[in-house]
Structures are given as structure tokens and as C-alpha cells.
Amino acid sequence: MTTPDPAQNTRPHFDYYTGRAVVNLAAIRHNVALMREKVRSHSPHTQIMAVVKGGAYGHGLIESARASAQGGATWFGTAQASEALELRRAGFDQRILTWLHTPGIDFAELIRHDIDISVAGPWAVSAVRDAAREVGKPARVHLKVDTGLGRNGVTLADLDQMLVPLIAAQDEGTLEFVGIWSHFAFADEPENPTVLAQAETFKQAIAQAEAAGAHLEVRHLANSAATLLNPSVYYDLVRPGLSVYGLSPAPQIGDAAHFGLIPAMTLEADIATVKKLPAGHGVSYSHQYHTEEDTRIGVVPLGYADGIFRHASGTADRGGLGAPIQIGDQRVSIAGRVCMDQFVVDLGPDTRTVPGDTAILFGDPATGVPGAEDWAVAAGTISYEIVTRVGERVPRVYIDDEPV
Ligand SMILES: *Cc1c(COP(=O)(O)O)cnc(C)c1O
Fold first, then answer.
1. Is the pLDDT of residue 311 over 80?
2. What residues form the annotated binding site for substrate?
3. Which prosthetic group or cofactor does it need (predicted)?
4. Which of 31, 129, 182, 299 maximizes the CB count within 10 A of its CB?
5. How far is the CA of 10 from the centre of ligand 1 (A)?
6. Ligand 1 pocket test, candidate residues 35, 116, 147, 239, most atoms within 8 A of CB
7. Which of 9, 58, 72 is nearest to 265 (CA)?
């Protein structure tokens, strides 16, 4: 009997996979550089924090962070501390902020690795203070304020109970209270009255913290949409995520090209099968699609195990046709249900598509292929989720094609 040696398996299934997410690092560099220039033209001192949570929105944490830094990002942001540590261990020396923690987290490890820590409740302040004493090095802390999103962070009503222990720990040298920050509920609707209200509340929180004795280094509020649409909230740092990867955070206002962004990810697969089916034949589970004529169907070997949304299926109520697919010069749609590993397209009787041809699910619409936003519409979600949920098992292939 033998047992497998995990060390032998350094390229798991990479060479045997039927599809891939091709990530253009030049696009990420371009997008960050574009936002940096835009921000700089309004506010010369403002820095860019590239938000790389969720494995850089599915694009790959390390590679995307490197490209973002090359584009001019001087900070990284992650929700999970594990991703912050992964970046530091990979050798990045930029500032890194991490912001979603639960009691029991080993803050000492973050302090040792020089990672900025967001606190959003009293338990976190005392845990960070204790960890900093243990390490013997001051922790750098950003206070998350809930200015109206109604999610993580402290409301103005609870601000004082956070400021007292924070300032005390600052004054004893246990921590550096470096930042105040918040997040918008409606950044993609700059005219929404909550945007102005949140910006006002943010100003009050800063004033209150400074009056209490905070020596703040950075105040930050803007995500992608605010970075692209609302220079009045740039402050010292902006935190774009989605737009780093070239997708529009406000599709109702403009697509990626409108904002000068270049989508970085192309999701593609090689056609496994092309075969004839007669008219009136049901296709895929529960026959939501029926062929209208004698035709040829193609099998595209990616499915919901790869993060392909089953909600992007062609269901009978939408004529059996779902999300768009580009195969050579043919634009087709998913026919019938998306399965775990595959779905079907109706190529028509006269198709020239053969097994091995590349099916592009989404990429840069400026090149004539569907975009992640088209998939978001088909699946009833947002482009954030389309790219972030591309399965971990799908190989990421990195290219570096300078945009023209
Ligand atoms: C995800 C996130 C961002 C980035 O948001 P985008 O809309 O992708 O730009 C910024 N700040 C916080 C707190 C976040 O959670």
C-alpha cells in the first residue's frame, strides 16, 4: 500500500483542467494607476489602498497585490486577517489594514507582522491593547465608525466609550490610534441623501476623536464608487476594490469603459463535445430548453463547482436561454440548466465550432465578449459576486498584456 505525498502535488490538477480564469496583470496596474491619477488631481496627498479581500475578488491575492503596488497602491486592505498575514509572509512591505475580527483572534501575530488593525467594538480595543503589551510593540489601530451603513463599526452614540480606552492606550504608548474610517451604504448613488449624511457624520466622528486627543494619521471613507464619483470624500486614503479589477461599481451610471477601467479577468473553457441533436430535443436536467430545429450542441466544461451560477441557467420561463457565451465569432447563451461541472450551448446547425475551441464566459466587453456585468444580470446578482465566486479549483493563469 502507498499513501499520497502531498509535497508531490504542487500543481494540483492545473495541467488537467478544462477551463481557466486568465488574469491580465497589466489591466490591474492600469486601473490602479488611473485611479491614482484621478485622486491625485483632486487631492495630491491621498494614497490608494487596494482592497484585496476575497482572494483579490477571485483574481488571486498575491499576484493582484503585486500588480496593484506596481500601479501605485501603497496600502492593502483585507477583511480576513489571514489574508493580511499571507501578504506580509509573501514579502509585501506596504501598509496592510485588516478589519473583520472575532474574539479569540491572535492580534499579537498581526502586531508582530506590522499589520494595521481595525477595531469596531470594546472587546477589540482591550484585546489589541493586551496583545501589544505582550509583543512589546505598539499596535496601529483604525477605529471603524458606523456613519449610517448599519453594519460593522461603532455608531456616534457609542463613540465615546471607544475613545476613552483608545486614547488611554495611546497615551500610555501601547497603541497608535492612527485612523478613523467608515463605509458607504449608497456610494454608487452619489446623489442619494445618505451619502451626504454619512459624510457629515464622518466629519463629526473625526472631530470628536481629535478633540479627545487622537493624533490621526489617516481618515478614509471612499470605496470604488466614491473614488470614481465623489472627490469630496477622498480624505487621506481611498479604498477601491472592484474597480482595481476593472469592473464598474456603478453600472447604472457607466460601464467599465466609461470609467476608463479594463476588466482583468477572462473566464474561459475548452469545448468538450459538439454533437447533433434533432429538433424538439430536451437539453440538460429537467429539459428547461428544447431545440427548435435539427442542430448541434456544445458542452462547456465548467459548472457550479467552478462558481458558475446555477441562477444563470436557461430556464423555461426565459425561453430556456441563460447567460451569454462567446465562441469564436458566435454569441450564444447557456441552454438549459447549469450542472456541477458543465453546461450546454446550442450552436445551431451550421456551426463551425469543434471540440477544443475556446468558450469565453466573460472578459473585457471592449473586445467583443460578454462581461461579468452581463453575467450578473443573467444570474440576478452583482459583478462582485460573479468574479469572487469563481471556484478556487479553477486555475488562474496570469498574463501581462499591456493595454493598447
Ligand atoms: C469591500 C470593501 C471596500 C471596497 O469596496 P468596493 O466597492 O469593491 O470598492 C472598501 N471598504 C470596505 C470596508 C470594504 O468592505
1. yes
2. 151, 340
3. pyridoxal 5'-phosphate
4. 31
5. 32
6. 239
7. 58
The C-alpha cell at 404 is 493598447
Active site residues: 53, 285
Of 328, 247, 210, 352, nearest to 31 by C-alpha is: 247
Query: Kind of pairing, strands 95-98 and 116-119?
Result: parallel
Mean predicted confidence (pLDDT) in 315-332: 97
- 206: how many CB neighbours lie within 10 A of its CB? 19
Determine the structural domain holding residue 152 and report its residue range.
25-246
Give the pLDDT band (50/70/90) at residue 16.
Answer: confident
Q: With CA atoms as reference, report the closest residue to 346 among 401, 281, 404.
A: 281
Q: Is pLDDT above 90 for 402?
A: no
Q: Residue 186: its pLDDT value, please?
A: 94
If you measure from the C-alpha of residue 302 to the centroid of ligand 1, how many angstroms do you get, rounded to a whole number? 29
254: cell is: 457607466
Is the distance from CB of 65 to CB of 56 less than 8 angstroms? Answer: yes
Given this model, what pLDDT does residue 202 score? 98
Ligand 1 contacts (CB < 6 A) are: 51, 53, 79, 183, 223-224, 239-242, 249
- Asked if residue 321 has pLDDT above 70, the reply is yes
Q: Which residues are annotated as a binding site?
A: 151, 340
Measured between alpha carbons, how far is residue 270 from residues 302, 307, 371, 396 in Å?
9, 17, 18, 15
Indicate the pLDDT class of residue 6, thresholds 50, 70 and 90: low
Same domain, 270 and 242: no
Phi/psi of residue 300, nearest 5 degrees: -100, 120
Per-position DSSP letters for 260-289, written without gaps between them: T----EEEEEE--EEEEE-TT-EETGGG-E
The alpha carbon of residue 145 and the mean position of all alpha carbons in its chain are separated, in whole angstroms, by: 22
Q: Give the predicted TM-score (pTM) of the model.
A: 0.95
382 and 236, same structural domain?
A: no
The predicted-structure confidence for 275-291, as pLDDT tens digits, reads as follows 999 999 999 999 999 99
CA of 50 to the centre of ligand 1 (A): 9
Summarised one tens digit per residue, pLDDT across range 219-245 is 999 999 999 999 999 999 999 999 999
Is the confidence at residue 360, as pLDDT, over 60?
yes
**Residue 372's domain is classified under what CATH number?**
2.40.37.10
Give the single-character DSSP code of 114: T
By residue count, the chain amounts to 404
The CATH number for 48's domain is 3.20.20.10
Please indicate, yes or no, if residue 258 is contained in any of the structural domains. Answer: no
